[in-house]
Amino acid sequence: MHDMKKRFALYGFGFAIGIALVFFFLGGKKASCNWLPNDRMLKIIRSKQINYSAEVQNQLSRANIDTLDINLILDNGDIDFSKSQTKNNPCRKYLINGIKEQKNMTLTVKICDSVATIENVVLN
């Protein structure tokens, strides 16, 4: 019985040191795990240079929509993969539906090498 207590104590000590090291090395970094396809694709889009087509710029100014709303959709939106063109070469198109305050907006985003262009904004 005494031997089991010693094993658990050593295991707990090693586990605590391991957790402390993980927090030390990853604590200051913006490390994230995006395992779901929706989250991964939104992260890829945000990592690219975002451009707005002339049509979208006109739509945003007419509807009095701020680019902050567009950025919120690119952060938290819901990609409709069934209506997206994910296999196009060299550029793919994704339909991203807004959630929460932006739920009445749908973006069409064209992704090429290092640029993501917002081609259309639909207000439902």
Task: Give a written overview of the molecule.
- By secondary structure, the protein is α+β, with helices and mostly antiparallel strands.
- It folds into two domains: 31 residues; 91 residues, 2-Layer Sandwich (YaeB-like fold).
- Helices cover 45% and strands 23% of the residues.
- The protein contains four helices and five strands, in the order ααβααββββ.
- A five-stranded mixed beta sheet has the order 1-5-4-3-2.
- The protein starts with a helix and ends with a strand.
- 15% of the residues are buried.
- The model has no long low-confidence stretch (mean pLDDT 89).
pLDDT < 50 stretches: none
Oligomer: single chain
How many domains comprise the coordinates? 2
The rough form would be described as elongated
Strand order of the largest sheet: 1-5-4-3-2
Strand content: 15-25%
How large is the count of helical segments?
4
Find the CATH topology of the largest domain: YaeB-like fold
CATH top level label of the largest domain = Alpha Beta
The mean pLDDT is: 89
Tell me the CATH architecture of the largest domain. 2-Layer Sandwich
The profile of the biggest β sheet is: 5 strands, mixed
- Along the chain, the helix and strand elements come as HHEHHEEEE
